[in-house]
Specification:
Shape: rod-shaped
Radius of gyration: 52 Å
Number of domains: 5
Structural class: mainly beta
Length: 588
Amino acid sequence: MFNYNKDFKWKKYLKRGCIGLVCVFLLLFASFENTKRVDNAKAMTDFSSKVVNIGGYNITLQGNYNVSVWRSGNTVYCKTHVYVAAPNGAWSAMGAQVSTNKGSASKTFVGDGSAAPKAGSGDVQFSFTDAGKGTVSGTIYAGFMPNLNGSQALSATFSVPYPSSESDTLIYDTNGGSGGPDSQSVNGNATISSTKPTRAGYDFLYWASTRTWANEAKTVKINHSTIDRAFFHSIGNNTYEIMVHTNGNIGSVNVPIWTADGDQSDLVWHPLGSGSWTRDGQYYNWGAQVTHVGDLAGTQLWVHIYAYPSSGGHVAVEYGGIPQIFYPGGSYKHVSGSGKSTTIYAVWSAPHKYKVTYNGNGGLYNGSSTWSNTATYDENYTTYSNNNFFVRTGYTFVGWNTKADGTGKDWTGWINKPWRWSYDYDVTLYAQWRPITYTVTYNGNGADRGKTTSSEHTYDSAKNLPSNGYEKDGHAFLGWSTSPNGGVQYGNKASVVNLTATNGATVTLYAQWKQLGYEINYDGNGATGGSTSTQYAPFNQTTALNKNGYYKKGYKFKEWNTKTNGSGESYKDQQSISVDSNKTVTKQ
């Protein structure tokens, strides 16, 4: 986009509409041809060169340029632009004027008549009104003050037919949006509609002569040692902030702007002021806010940058094109008047960003119940899977849903699949879980007979164990345990829940038994001290009675007896006995 032409030749200037200081005084101005609109204005025939002597300097005058003609209502305007440059020491008072057979002529002087050389530019414009018939003719003069129409001036005659009154059409292209204003008829100047289009996921910024502006609020690098970067930014209706950074001892910076597709009749040199600014993270030492309304709306503007070193001369670079910007309610200047259609385009902000929140819905990720990231409108987004993500004990992840209870929109099908985000709001996705299932099997743990059928269980759902079906001789069933000798954990037909958190696992419960038998209680029968602990003896097993632990003053222990007076069954201390299930005692 940026061309720095080290050999700034006159042919290049004519093509792009820029001119710089040269070793002779050059004046460009226009002759008026029969034309009704700016887009087909004709270049005048070259003036013959004329050499004049000003202040001891032989100066060559020459001219070759275009003129624009437009109408607004019943007024017709004709305008050209004058460029002035002078060598060091040359007298620089320069001007141009128009003499016409109708209408009023404006006169612009370029240069201030001082001894200091000046470079500048200015409009030469006149207007006239009538009933829409006939022509306007006259002479345009350009030369040195004060004798603008004297021997030291160039002149050219013109004759321009009065342009007919034809309305143009202004078309609003919403550029991907909707609800924009209808096309409007334009005859001369107009006001931009206050209706703003809308577009899901974007903000409307303004209307422009192009669909997008790639250089909006961005630093642009320029490959030149004196002018190395520039910054353009739209801040209002046809108003721009311009920043330029230069190196070396620079006395002034000017930025010429004109309609790219026109004839430079609207070219204006915008001076920048020196200072210190930071834009887009870059430092700039020249800047200004400028307003430039091109003669032909809907067409981009062309920009050059000129830096004038304090030592003399100039450096010029071509910045390139920028669009004309129009804000709702702002002014629109149109110069066609020929039934032409012009389109301006809605320019949109960067796409909105939206927050996507993943909710564990009972699960946790790194100790938190939520995690979020960002989705950009119209850009690809990938819905997360749950690998190394949320964990919920006893449950298996099955997908995402926009409602916690699973009655919202199911997003499971988008997991790990990029898709273009089209929601203009934040989204919360809730993890959907399925409880694990497991099997409980039952081990008789030494049973002599019987069976207990395995059962199926679901996490977080209580369920009763089946009734024990095992039998073991001489033993009573107490309950179940997760280990053979673990002690009773669950009773017969007990309600259980969450015996494991592993999906598809098998849990084994072992029967817990108590051997059947009898209890032997020992009574001191008048003893004055001591004790003998109660004893449990299994049926049909030889059991030694406990050693007597009682004593009685003045007495010696004799034996145990089933009656206090000794008339019952007697047993020696620590005698071995066995008892059957009928409680028949056999002494050993």
